[in-house]
Each structure stands twice: as structure tokens, then as C-alpha cells.
Amino acid sequence: MSETSKPSSASEATGGVELPKQYKPADHEQRIRARWDEAKAFHADPQRVLRGEAKPYCIVIPPPNVTDRLHLGHALNNTLQDVLARAHRMKGFETLWMPGTDHAGIATQAVVERRLKKDEGITRQQLGREKFVAKVQAFKDEYEKIITDQLKLMGCSCDWDRQRFTMDEVCARAVREAFFRLFKDGLIYRGKRLVNWDPVLQTAVSDDECYEEEIDSSFFYLRYPLREMAKGPKRQSAKVSANESMPVTWNELARRGYPGAEQHGGEEQAWVTVATTRPETYLGDTAVAINPKDPRAKSLRGLFVELPLVGRIIPVIEDDYVVLPAAMQADPEAAKGDPKAVYATGFLKVTPAHDPNDYEIGQRHKDAIEACGNPVMINMLAPDGSVSDKHGWSDVGDAHLFVGLPREKARKKVLEEFKARTVDNSTATLLAETKPYRHSVKHSDRSKAIIEPYLSDQWYVKVTDDRLAPAANRALSSAFGGTGLETSATKGKEKANSDGELRFYPARYAKTYEQWHDGIRDWCISRQLWWGHRVPVWTLRDDAPLKGGDFSRSLGTLASWIREGRICGYAFGNPLTEQGLKLDLAEKNTSSEIHICVLDQDDDEIVSQLEMNGFEQDTDVLDTWFSSALWPISTMGWPNPELAGKEFDGLLQAFNPTTTLCTAREIITLWVSRMVMFERYLMPEKWAAEKTKPNALASLAENGEGRGPLPFKNVFIHAVIQDGEGRKMSKSLGNGLDPLDIIASHGSDAMRFTLCQMTTQTQDVRMPMVKDPTTGRNTSPKFDLGRNFSNKLWNAARFTMSMLASSHPTSDTSHPTSLIDRWMLSRLATATKEVDEALANFEYSNYAQTMYDLLWRDFCDWYLEAIKPTIASDKSQQAVLRTTLDCILRLLHPIMPYVTEAVYEQVRLLPEMPVKGISLASSRKGNLLCTAGWPEVSDSLRSEEIEAEFERARSLVTAIREVRAQHAVPPKRRITLHAAGAAVDAQAGALVQTLAGVETITSDVSPSGSVAMPFESSQLHLSNLKDAASAADTGAERERLQKVIADNEKSIATLEGRLNNPGYAQKAPPAMVKQTQDQLAKAKADRDAAQSALAAL
């Protein structure tokens, strides 16, 4: 049957088929997914956008890592995205929700390495790079399918024909192009810096790949002998040696005014004591620092210390960073609360190559350190964390006994040697003492190894350049202080130097974004891994001989390659150009390297020529976030959609910039920021305005100035799911919830509704966890809410279908006149507006709660009950009933797609019965609800007068029900309401009779034994509550009225206190103050009426 066909009756339309008595998700979800897939319901058509037939709406999925199955946090994020995608699809937008996965370089490699070690007992080095990468690829394929299947089970309406992977051919081409442009423009460079180093995986890692954990350790106190320059001839070399210096005695220190020097043996060699938790790093010390406010500092100026066994002479320097011991601080008692001050000696060993704070000190005192002939940074570790003299440490001396030891064993060995040795001419051992110390240490999230600050050569993106991070910061909307959202804090403010429209929801996260850019450092993008995008740079290193004959013969070829845009490069820090090529290569010396970036990894002509002449491709791969930063454009075929394939035709023009990003707060800095940087830098400045023109991408000039479009305008930061105790869910704690377990026990819709209902913009989501007794798996009673709501919808639909069983189609538009129908339409109009507002502001909890109230309270509890006596004969009411249920299904579909689609399969077959003011567009694909039109409900249907009138009737019904309950009146017993004058009008009276079990409403005087019931300013009576034999029970009635009086007295006191509070009266919205005043008046009237009734007993 077609969408527009009109059956002669409901029973004919449904073929006599009814909805089953119970909704069992497993009976429907797979079948409905198959219908969606068959109809290609979620496949976006960019040509509709380019032809002007529809507006675009686009979300790119934050690609989950292919390391494991999705957890409940993924379920939350993807549910929220799906709500937006489904709602906008129904609203008529051509909607693209782009799915995909992330290769997650270090995380995936770590998982596969562990599996390789466990299953085959070998390392990746033993297996070899090519075979190892093949194993990782197989692992990726396995988990990519698992992840895709999970997303489909959750009901995600992604465009599955366009699924991408950060290392597929299309995305890899974008990575190469972006690297090439940034490298050519001088924004990618090679540098030797301190990085977070994982000695197990032997790679640099970012801060987000680390975690802090407290460990039990010790502070070790090491004595360094003091030296001073020897008197005599000027030194022949820059380096200070032990032979050119002489010991400093305690007598000399006393002469210099050193406090406490006289307590030591006068002719013994003096020392300073440093405290450290990593004594093995002393091998890389290049200075000892003291705070200039320390009373000992003045007497140590110009002196040096000698590193035991190594023999290196290093200066004593003064720096404010050094913590003063507690006893030397201005408030010694207060300082005792600072562990650093308690454990401090006042002397700090400075190891710039192995500590970030020491690195900064080393840079500040570079001249003093180098004056001793030492480099500022001495790296004494190998990549595996063992002590090494091959990576920057040369003056080994007698410390050779530590070389080759792993850092843990080296630590023990250093302590043994220091304990066994004494300061020259002294009985004091080099190890002064050891104190237990518990402190937080950075660990690698993947290997769990303790992170080592490590000096290494890495590739960096110069994000501090104005074209990148500052340009991204300027992208914040100028409105309301840069948040784009008005709050009390931002009202009337504008962000200076803003040229974009980026907005965060909740608004507070705009400050996180802004502060990150204000203090940003250049981004280390290289990783010493095998799984990832390999750095596309070939290097002729300092010591590499020129191979393949005379390299100068190739210079002309290189010039042509540069001219053709196939390569770019740097020699000795200067860009390679056609004009400067010969000079640069001719002046090759041993102080630098030549780097050439190749645009196309399959350009065999260039690669073979470079490698034949001594160039080698860098073995590092790029940080995962580099490819992720290109996600909004790489997934759509940039930089060359035509080359990417036919399916990319028009995709970039139609859907970039995208509309909304939904992500977690912990990656605002790592991902959101970098996507903004890259799109603003790489996309043409006039892209948004001229992208629909033919060949727009090719014809518009490259931007390169950070003035391009935004990748998205709206960023919604979702909550974090915690367990019932407020802890983050994790495998190690065993408190995680598997979405598939919830789907199996409650259904996908129940999970989705519960997650939406709990998602506010003010706090994280707490999910109490219990064990399912039948499966032994973790679950949460919170999901019962969603399951109950699914069942409520199903039962309401079954009841509606039965009520409409004899209905017939009509071409006439209904104009409902009854109070209950007009009230239902008013509530529907109000709810539709509230849902639209909630969607526009990412207020998922408000959306879910509005639908909960509309279906459960308004539709089921009141409307369906009220129309039972009249629905069979009232055609207009039948139209309202059918239309209201249809609207509810459409409004609820984005949150609960399966159950609404299952119900809609039957509801769409009901005869059409239009209602004035409501438009329901037919489905565009496959007669499916997911592609049907969003309800267009006229605001004219909203009526405050009608809703107030119904609320008055509902209050009366509630009051009567309370009296019935208090007097234990049987449900089927019909009673009489005595209401004088016009206390109850005709329409409200009919509702009261139906909903409160009232047989008659009369103005007659109530008989003896009736029960008084205060209502508003009147006193009504109820009679016929019981048989005559049991009617007279004044004691129970007196008790009831006394409770009514007491309850209202309590309410009156509370409300009067609120209104008498000047702060409330001045600051609360006028509507809220008026509502409080009305509540007070009603409470007083109810109290007075109850008092009158009590007096009459």
C-alpha cells in the first residue's frame, strides 16, 4: 500500500493485524535495521544540496579507536549525535552523519604487541616491520567490524556507504597533502626537545597518553664535593677538569660566611647535599642550583661541584625555582605542610635532558653551564631506558660500571656506590640518607611504564605561528565574550580580535579552548612506531656519503620536481628553491641535514632517485591526532575529491563546513583545536561563500594564512558517565557497562532514552551499577526507566489502534471544539516547540523529559482516559487521537528509533484524518518513519486559556480522587458532586464525570452524611460515597480535614517567607513571583474552605 492510499477503515488498513501485547525489542530491532538498510534511508545526496533542494546538515563522528569494543561513553556520545542527525533528517535537511574509525597508532600497536608476545612469544622487532604492520591491519579489520556492528545495534543512522578510516587511501592522501603544505611553509620542522618517553614502547607520547599515579618511593640525599678554580695559568681548554680545580674545604666555606661550616672538620672537603627520587640521572647533571634567597647562596658564588665517579665539574647557579627548606622560609610552621619544603635541602641537581623543569633552568643558565665546557643537556639514557654512553654522554670516567644497566638496576647500583664511597679527605659517605616518599608519577597509558623525560629528535608543527593556534583562537564567536552564548557573566561583552563563529555548548568550555591556545607550545607530531602514517620526508644525514655517482647531475631534476610541486625541502635550515638548490647542496657540511618531502608516496621516480643518492625515509610515523585533525575534510575527499572517487562528487562542496561536533571535554585541546587550526589554514578563505561554483576547490587560491572556514560552528561537550560513586568507568575498576549487555536486557531504545534523560549541561552522569542475576554481567536499574517508557508507548499505541478500529478516512479537516481535544492539541503544540528549542540548544534532558510528560502524563493518563466515552462516535476526536499519536511517534523517533518505527508501521496504515493546524509530511524513502516529515504544529493551537481551564478540571478530578481514596470508595462506584452555581461548567463537568467516577453533578443541597471538599474559593460536597449503613463516619472526615488544614498552613508559611524575602522579590523573574503569589492565594482558600467544612461537622 502506498503512503498516500486511503483504506476505507482502520481494520481494512491493518488487515486485521494488531500490535503484539508486549514490546520485545529483539523481535523488531534487526528487522527494522534491515528495512533502513534496504531503503538506504541514511544515504546523503550532496546533489540535492547543490541544486538548492535542501539545506545541509552534517556531523562527522569522532572516530573511535580500533583497539577495543565500544563502551557506554561511546554509546552516550553516539546516541546524542544520532538524535541530532535523525531530527534534522526529518526536518527536511539533507543529512550526512559520516562514520569512521581511527587507527589509534600507539594504542593499537601496544595491544597487538602484547598479543604477539602472549600468543607467539616474539617481539615486533623479531617479526619485522612489514609483517608486523600486516598483523596490526588484520587486528584493525576485526575490531572495525565489531565497532560498526555495535553502532548499528545502537540504532545509529550513519551513512554507512561512506565509512572512512584514518589510514585508508583517501585519508592518507589528505595527510600527505597537509604535511607537504605545512612543511613547505616552514610550519613543520625537526627539533631536539624534551618529550614524554615510553621506554617500553620506545616512543614519544603525548600528555593525553599518560596518567598520573602515586607510588611508594624514596628521597635519596646525595653529597656532591665542592670545587673551586685552581690558581695559576689560564686554562688551555674550555672544559673545566678536576685537574684544573681544587677541593673547597669547610674552613674556606667558613671564611666565605657559609652558615654552619664550622660544625665540620675544617680541612675536610666540603660538599652540598641534593635530594632526588631518581639518583641514576645524576650522570646527566650539568649544574647544581640554589635559591638566591638562601643564606648559603652568597658564600657559594663562583664555586663548582664534582660529580662522583664521572668527574664532571659543574657550576653552582642561583635560581628562584629552587624550593627553600621549611626552616628557611618566612613561615616555617606553615611550610611544614608543603612536602617539597619538608624534603628539600635547598640544593637542586639540574638535569636538563631528563626533567622539564631542569630543562627550563638549563636554558636560563646556558652561559654558566657552557662556561665549564659542558653541553647544557647530557642524555645518559638509551631509548629502552638503560644507561648509555651512545646518545649524548661522553665523559663517562669511572661511571662506566653503570653503562648498559636498566634504569631500575642503575638506580640500585648508584646507591650502592654512593653508600660505599666517601667525600675525599672525609668520613662522610656520598649517600647521606634515604627518606620514604609517596608521590605522583607519570605513567604511559598503553604500556603502564613510568614515563621518562627524554631528549630526542622529533618533528614538530609550529602551532605557535599566528596562522595556526592564534588563528584558531580567533575563531571563537565574538558574541558574549567569545562563548556565543549569553549568560550573566558574558552579557554585553564581546571577544576582541574575533573573526569566527565557533560556539561551545555548555558555554564554559569556550574558556578551556581559549586558555589552551594562550599557553600553547609547538606540537610534537612524530612517534617512534610502525603503525601509522609514515613521515613523508627523506633525509641526507650529516654522515651519509653521496651514493650513485655525482649528485650534482640530479640537481636539474630536483629543480623540475620543485617546480612541479612534487617535492619541497630544506637544506641547512633554508628552503630548497630552484635558484638556491646548487648553492645549498654544494655547501653541505657536518652541521645540518638536508630534508626533502615527497608529496606522493607512490612517486617511484622521485623515491628511487633520492634513495639511490643516499637519502633515507624517516622511520617515524605521525601522531594519531595529525590525521584526526583533518577528519572533517579528509573524509570528504580533500584535497582532490575527483581523484578520491565518484562517491565523493559534490560531497565537500555540500557538507563542508560541517554543522556540529559532539565530543568529550578531554579532547577539546587535542582534537577540536587542531581541526580548527588545520581547516582554517588549509581550506581557501572564500570557500564557504564560493564553494558551489564549478571547480571551486581548484580555482580558489590556497589560503595558508589561517583565515579559512571553520570545520563546524557548534561544539557540544557531553557529560562523562561515572559509576554510582562518582568514579570514571574503567576495566581496571570492573565498574564498566557494556552497551550490548544493556541492549540485550532492556533494548536499544531503553538505553538511548535513559542516556538522553540523564544528559544535562551542568553535571556528569552517575550510573549506579549492579550485577544482573541472570547473566552475571554489569547493568544499572537506571535503564528500567527507558524500558518502562518503551512499554508505555507500545501499550498506548495498542489502545489507540483499538479505539480507531472502526474509523474511516476523510478528506475534511477536523476543527475540534471539545475541551479535552483542544487541550491535547495545545499540549502537543507546546511540547513540539519545547522539543525544537531543546534540540537547538543541545538540551537532551529537557527533550526527553518533555516527551515523557507528553506521552505518559498528558496523552496516556489524561487524554486517553477522558475520551473513552466519546471516541467511537466523535469523528473529530478520532482525527485528534490519530494525529496526536503520529506526532508523538515523530517527535520521539530521534531518541527511540526502533519502537517508534515499529509502531509507525501500523499507524501509517490508519485512514488519514487531517487536523487543522498540523502538517505531517509523508516519508521520502521506503514508507519509513525515519524519513517522514517532522511535525509542523501551528502555534495557533496553543491556548493558555484552554490549558488553564483543563488544569482547573484536572485539579478538581485530583481532589475528588483523593477523597475517594481516603474513604476507600470502590473504583466502579459512581458518586454525586454537589456544586453550587457555576463552580463547574459543562465541558469541564463532562471530564470530571469521566475521570473522577462521578455519576451526577448537581447544584442541589448536599444530603446529610456528604463529605465537604474545599475547591478554590468554594466548598463542594460529595455524596453517595458509601452505602447508607456505613456513611456516617465523622471521625475519619474530621481527621482528613485537619490534615488538609495543616498541609495548607505549612505551604502558606513557606510561600509567605519566600515572598517576604527581598532577594527573591527583586531577583526572581516576574512570572515566577506571580506563580508564587497564586500558589499562596490558593493555599489560603483551600485552608479556609477546609476550616469551614470542619466547623460544620
Structure description:
This protein has 1097 residues and is α+β, with helices and mostly antiparallel strands. Among the domains are: 210-443, Valyl/Leucyl/Isoleucyl-tRNA synthetase, editing domain (Isoleucyl-tRNA Synthetase, domain 2, Alpha-Beta Complex); 536-617, Alpha-Beta Plaits, CATH 3.30.70; 1036-1097, Helix Hairpins. Strands 7, 8, 9, 10, 11, 12, 13 and 14 form an eight-stranded mixed β-sheet that branches. Mean pLDDT is 88; it is low at 1-6, 8-17, 232-236 and 1028-1032. The chain starts with 9 loop residues before the first helix and ends with a helix.
Question: What's the gist of this structure?
Answer:
This protein is of the alpha+beta class. Helix content is 40%, strand content 15%.
